Amino acid sequence: MKPRTRPRHIGNREIGALSHVQDHASRELKTVPGRATLAEAGKLMARLNVGSLLVMARGTIVGIVTDTDLARKGAGQGLDPATASVRAIMSSPVMAIDGRRSVEEAQVFMRSRGVRHLGVMDRGKIVGMFTLSDLVRYLSAFATLVPARSAPVTARRPRRRSSDTSSRRS
Q: For the chain, what is the radius of gyration of the CA atoms?
């Protein structure tokens, strides 16, 4: 039997072959009311430094709006950011994955659906968000486990200085 190696960590989160999505997701849900304007949502995303907001109506999550939605569905379609509501461009329902699923399963899910933000579910409720940034952080921790291959070295002749070439011409 192979001896168990010490677990690796990202901050206080352990990484490993069976790392769960919930261990790498943000638990703090960032939300915006469905009646908010695109301008208000954009300002809130900038202030919170996030790429998505969950859209709320009557205390329930009804969708998600992303920075890409603001650009492509809002500005790209000529909507007035001062008057158009978030509900007009949000994606619904929110793509989500059970928090006990592996990070690798989340990666496949995100890739197959073309999404960069996933709700993390626990007992049927969204309790967190797993984003492309979370996935990159998780995967980059593995990059330190594998030694980088050095680039092949190609032999090159040193460049001659202009003073070297002028003496040879004489």
A: 24
Q: Going by C-beta distance under 8 Å and a sequence separation of 6 or more, which residues neighbour residue 42?
A: 67, 70, 81
Q: What is the CATH number of the domain that holds 125?
A: 3.10.580.10
Residue 165 belongs to some domain of the structure: no
| CA distance linking residue 76 with residue 137, whole number of Å | 30
Strands 52-57 and 60-66: antiparallel
Sign of CA dihedral 93, 98, 104, 108: negative
If DSSP codes are grouped into helix, strand and coil, which group holds residue 120?
strand
Q: How many domains does the chain have?
A: 1
Domain that holds residue 132: 12-145
pTM greater than the 0.85 cutoff = no
Distance of alpha carbon 26 from alpha carbon 32, whole angstroms: 17
> How far is the C-alpha of 127 from the C-alpha of 40, rounded, in Å?
24
**What's residue 93's pLDDT?**
94
Strands across the sheet containing 117-122: 96-98, 117-122, 125-131
pLDDT tens figures, 6-63 = 444 444 445 455 689 999 999 999 999 999 999 999 999 999 999 999 999 999 999 9
